[in-house]
Specification:
heterodimer, A: 438 residues, mainly alpha, Ammonium transporter fold, two-stranded antiparallel ribbon, 1% strand, globular, B: 112 residues, alpha+beta, Alpha-Beta Plaits
């Protein structure tokens, strides 16, 4: 109870801070139009939901699992799997309601409790042209992958128990409200922030939480002196490939329809991913002499991250530029910025998801085309859209950073965050889970 | 009798085996080993983080032979295992006191 009280108190404090940061905008919830179920849309969203779940298990699990040392591969992979299970339950209990219901007087910042435990969710209820059950589950897979991404920054040294408690609190107190801001009728959606599939909600959010987590947790023992090379990049390549395929569900699925918007989202997703992968590969080839496997797959993920907010708003040319930019920025973030600043973001979650998300969110404001997504970007003369995008980025960074910091400090005070030295050196697989990989 | 032990590059193993067979070498033991010599280790780079791998994989060959074959065997290994690049390995020759073929009980030269 003491934990709960301090967390609730902290949340209130953060809320007040956000009020001062964010532009206040409130209004009535959009009146729902009378629509009927569309079986094509529903079929695509059922498929998309499965694709996005595959991104986390086994996508992220393998991508991250291959990048750590062999003694930590099981511990790393099971974090994604356990996060999938825990977030599913939490989304059912409270997350969905906080993100996607009307919050009354607080609606600008957080939803309400009307759908606690998914109360009243019926077989005939619609969300747009698809069953609300499908929409709820589709969104659930986003609430799963976002915390799962954060685990990459904390790998090799965080207690499994503390990780689950931290990410549980984080999903309810950070992810659900920010989702509400952008997609649930909160102040950022009112302000006109464009985030088609989660550049802000998923990637900036997880990237910033990852950076804060890496800083609070501290470096791994032996960081900078011991050999911490990835133990199996084939696992990582399989994982990255599953992420790529799953991303069609993530981006094209965010059209919440089987229509032209979904088609364009799919096309630009593929183009940006490939452009960023080639960019990262070329940069490595030029500056490091060899095009590495880890480099090209990291570049692909960077491109996928950056096109995420833009995917329903830009054309293939915009996607090409966004991909190129993401390749350059994320390469710089992982290879130059991280060593320079000295933080140990183990698997470059901030470098790839944080910086890639910011790049994509800003460039969405540049390359948005009215004929595609209904909003003009800077290239079509609407310079103001860039400022609106920056408002979304800033609000997310400030709230996420402060709230993540407080949650970590509270969890750390109550149960500790890091494993002991013997566990860290001997490996998390055996010491935390009683299993090893030969 | 002599025991010739050679550390070579793993991909040269087949070449060495083919070079030794015509000389009448009747058997060979190999193991996968790791080590370093003048080549030192090699640097690997992952997202800009450079790690030096100090011990490189090599193959160790052991052949037991009669004294008069030493020159030919050492010569054959030297030629067949060479790439003329750093890291080709080394050959060591030991004196061998006794040899026994377990199945028949034959000893020394008979057992080779």
């Amino acid at each position: 109870m003491r934990i709960l009280k301090s967390v609730t108190g902290a949340f209130g404090l953060i809320g007040a801070l956000v009020l001062t940061v964010a532009l206040v905008a409130s209004g009535d919830a959009l009146a729902a139009e009378k629509v009927v179920l569309n079986s094509g849309d529903t079929a695509w969203m059922l498929t998309s939901t499965a694709l996005v779940l595959m991104m986390t298990i086994p996508g992220v699990a393998l991508f991250y699992g291959g990048m750590v040392r062999k003694k930590n591969v099981l511990a790393t992979a099971v974090q994604s799997f356990a996060v999938t299970c825990v977030m599913t339950v939490l989304w059912m209990i409270i997350g969905y309601s906080l993100a996607f219901t009307d919050g009354g007087g607080m609606n600008a910042y957080v939803g309400g409790l009307d759908k606690l435990l998914l109360r009243g969710l019926g077989v005939g209820d619609l969300s747009g042209t698809i069953p609300e059950t499908v929409f709820m589950t589709f969104q659930m897979t986003f609430a799963i992958i976002t915390p799962a991404l954060i685990t990459g920054a904390l790998a090799d040294r965080m207690k499994f128990s503390s990780l689950l408690v931290f990410l549980s609190l984080w999903m309810v107190l950070v992810y659900a409200p920010i989702t509400h801001w952008v997609w649930g009728g909160g102040f950022l959606s009112k302000a006109g922030v464009l985030d088609f599939a989660g550049g802000t909600v998923v990637h900036i959010n997880s990237g910033v939480a990852a950076l804060v987590g890496a800083l609070v947790l501290g470096k791994r023992r032996g960081y900078g002196s011991e050999n911490m090379a990835p133990h199996n990049l084939i696992l990582s390549m399989i994982g990255a490939s599953m992420l790529w395929v799953g991303w069609f569900g993530f981006n094209a699925g965010s059209a919440v329809a089987a229509n032209g918007s979904a088609g364009m989202a799919m096309a630009v997703t593929q183009i940006a991913a490939a452009a960023a992968a080639v960019t990262w590969m070329m940069l490595e080839w030029i500056f490091r002499g060899k095009p590495s496997v880890l480099g090209i797959i990291s570049g692909a993920v960077a491109g996928l991250v950056a096109i995420t907010p833009a995917s329903g708003y830009v054309d293939p040319f915009g996607a090409l530029i966004i991909g190129l930019a993401a390749g350059v920025v994320c390469y710089w973030g992982a290879v130059v910025l991280k060593p320079k600043l000295g933080y140990d973001d183990t698997l470059d979650v901030f470098g790839v998801h944080g910086l890639g998300g910011i790049t994509g969110a800003i460039l969405t404001g540049v390359f948005a085309i009215e004929a595609i997504g209904g909003t003009k970007g800077a290239l079509e003369g609407n310079m103001g859209q860039i400022l609106i995008q920056i408002e979304g980025i800033a609000a997310t960074i400030v709230y996420c950073a402060i709230a993540t910091f407080i949650i970590l400090k509270v969890v750390g005070a109550v149960m500790g965050l890091r494993v002991d030295e013997e566990t860290e050196i001997g490996g998390l697989d055996y010491n935390l889970h009683g299993e090893t990989v030969q | 009798m002599k025991l010739v032990m050679a550390i070579i590059k793993p991909f040269k193993l087949e070449d060495v085996r083919e070079a030794l067979t015509p000389l009448g070498v009747e058997g060979m033991t190999i193991s996968e080993v790791k080590g370093f010599g003048r080549q030192k280790g090699q640097a690997e780079i992952y997202r800009g983080a450079e790690y030096t791998v100090n011990f490189l994989p090599k193959v160790k060959i052991e052949v037991a032979i009669k004294d008069e074959m030493v020159e030919a065997v050492v010569d054959a290994i030297t030629k067949s295992a060479a790439t003329n690049k750093i890291g080709d390995g080394k050959i060591f020759v030991y004196s061998l006191d006794k040899a026994v073929r377990i199945r028949t009980g034959e000893t020394d030269a008979e057992a080779l």
